[in-house]
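Methods, example record. To illustrate the input and output format used throughout this study, we show the complete record for CSC1/OSCA1-like 7TM region domain-containing protein. The sequence lines were provided to the predictor; the line carrying structure tokens was produced by it.
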Amino acid sequence: MELLSSIQGYISHSDIEKSACNKVLWFTIWNIFFATVFSGSVLYQLSIFLDLKNIPSKLAVAVPAQASFFIAYVVTSGWTSTATELFRLIPFIFSLVARCFAKREDEELEIPSIPYHRDIPRILFFGLLGITYFFLAPLILPFLLVYLCLAYIIFRNQFINVYTPKYETAGKFWPTVHNSMIFSLILMHAIAVGIFTVKKLSLASTLILPLPVLTLLFNEYCRKRFLPIFVAYSAEVLIKKDREDQNDAEMAEFFDKLATAYQDPALMPVHYSTNTGSLNSPLLSSSEV
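The corresponding predicted structure is encoded as:
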């Protein structure tokens, strides 16, 4: 996904990881949740979403039938992923192999960075499972609770002792988390409306209808109120950064190097070669002329 994001035109590493995180998240939701719930061909899945009126009723029938599968998925994929993150066997083996081919024995290995595009979509997907299944199959909640507790303990250790950030995210992954939670709530509301409709509980389905509207209004409020904070840095942060740079003794050396860090080739002076070899010698000598 990082390759696709770089091909898409993103330049900075943070934008590439943010775009890859969004791609992995929605691909995971579609490929694991909807493809499992609506098992069948791609055309059949698309036909379900094209018929908007019957989406809640079809979700109400299909989603509860896959509760046991997603409980097993949380145990197998969620618990094992946290254990794999703790042991990090593959990076350990890779570091041993890289150390054998290192030029110097005292050469320091590169400290890994936090794989945002891999871990954030996984956690958000388990959050979607918890929101959509908490009233359909409450048995999934203890397994999700164990996963979240393990993830908190393990990732806290990894952030403190293993990973080092390559850049300051400035909270720019939070809109992805917020949008995922809003989508999970809307999906849960649609499933609840479908279940009450299938069971012919018209009063209950009618009372739930305002919930998605209120959720979308809350999302719009958050988008207008808080999204600009994540799009651009606030003036307070920039002023604080400028003051830190003014007190930094290494900034003068940095600015001196910055002046010659990049020079446009079009503005460079042209240097003609003074070599008079056979390749650039004139065809006729001065005596012949």
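Annotations derived from this record:
The longest helix spans residues 13-37.
Residues 2-259 form one domain.
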